[in-house]
Amino acid sequence: MYSAEPQTWLAIFMAALATYSLRAGGLLLGGKLPQKGRVSKALEALPGTILISLVTPSIFAEGPWGIAAACSTALVTYKMNNVFAGMVVGVAIVALQRNLAF
């Protein structure tokens, strides 16, 4: 039978406490955030900026083909109003580039 050391249990407990605190804090403080103004607009834009910050390194790691795929994804999504179709186009461009070794 596995027996963890006290430091392991302390680390698990502290991680759980931190996670719960962040979630509970968000729920408790969410109603107190401004509903109008600059802060509200910044909070509304936050999910998009986080997504961009996560995807941008991968785009530039693929070089010109990654940039072409990202631009194509944005264009198809905008024109067709369909995120899934845009993603399929972007993935297809990168897959073709990798498999055909351009």
Topology:
Layout: H1 6-30, H2 38-61, H3 64-80, H4 83-100
Helix pairs in contact: 2-3, 3-4
Keywords: Membrane, Transmembrane, Transmembrane helix
Protein name: Branched-chain amino acid ABC transporter
InterPro entries: Brnchd-chn_aa_trnsp_AzlD
Task: Tell me what the structure shows.
The protein is mainly alpha-helical and 102 residues long. The protein folds into two domains: 32 residues; 58 residues, no CATH class. The chain is built from four helices and no strands. Helix 2 crosses helix 3 and helix 3 runs antiparallel to helix 4. The protein is flat and about 55 Å long. The mean pLDDT is 89. It comes from Dethiosulfatarculus sandiegensis. It holds the Pfam family AzlD. This is Branched-chain amino acid ABC transporter.
